[in-house]
Structure prediction request, 228 residues.
Amino acid sequence: MEMSFDESFDALSVSAWGPDTRWIAHTPWSGDFGGARFANPEHGYPFTTEAGILRIEARRNEGKWTSGLLASVDPRGRGFAQQYGYFEMRARLPTGAGVWPAFWLIGKDRSKATAEIDVMEFYGDKPDGYSSVVHVWHRDGRHDSQYKRIDAFVAGDPEEFHSYGVKIDAEFIRMYFDHRLVWKASTRPEHRQPMFILLNLALVEATADDAPDPSYMYVDYVRVYRFH
Prediction:
């Protein structure tokens, strides 16, 4: 494979909605979720970079939680997306009730269904592992999913740097933890298309008020490789 996308966070190219930045700070379909609103980027919040590490911060502002999300395409579909290949993030995750960091992919064509791959979805009150899920959200209300709990961590381990990856081809979606295969699922027709990247520190709505204030997610890099 050869590298097709390399975000090392020596600096951060981000705007609220684009264009002309590598990332935007919202989902391209303008949908927030969970117990925190995703903030427009300002100097020092919710994103900071230092020594090649991105810090995403969640905190209360006037009693309401805000946090950060990055997406690699804007509402008009401009930006990075790729069909097939290997997508990886290396990150440290916060622990504690309410925190909900994730690394995920969405298919660019959402006209008939939304194809979603949750490479890593972590709940801070369950620090022994994380979830990987493959979704298809159909426009007629049907929802198909394949799910795996990855019991990857020992005590305190999610707060160390680990890599979370997915390799996608026409047959399988393979999940990796620290470059070790931990699960594979069948590739649905809806996932045979260019996928774009999202990463975020969300909060679980029901337990957001129990989250450490502030909470931090640290990201070393996001890299994508394509097949030769």
